[in-house]
Amino acid sequence: MATIPKIQLSDVTKQFAGNLVLDGLTLDVERGESLAIIGQSGSGKSVTLKCILGLITPDRGSIRVDGEEVVGLRSAGFDRMRAKFGMLFQGSALFDSMPVWRNVTFGLTRGRQVSGSRMRAIAEENLERVGLDRRVLNLRPSELSGGMQKRVALARAIAPRPEIIFFDEPTTGLDPIRADVINDLIVSLVEDLGVTALTITHDMASARKIAHRVAMLYQGKIVWIGPRDRLYDSGNPYVDQFVQGRAEGPIQ
Amino acid sequence: MPAPKPAAALLAPFAAIGRVVVAMFAGVGRIAIFAGRTIGRAVVPPYYPGRFLEQLAHIGWFSLPVVGLTAIFTGAALAQQIYTAGSRFSATSTVPAVVVIGMVRELGPVLVGLMVAGRVSSAMAAEIGTMRVTEQLDALATLRTDSYRYLIAPRLLAAVVALPLMVLAANAIGIFGGWLLAVQKLHFNSASYLAVTRKYMSSDDFEMAMVKAGVFGFFIALMGCYHGYRTTGGAAGVGNATRNAVVGAFVLILASNFLITAMVFG
Question: Residue B149: inside a domain, yes or no?
Answer without folding.
Answer: yes
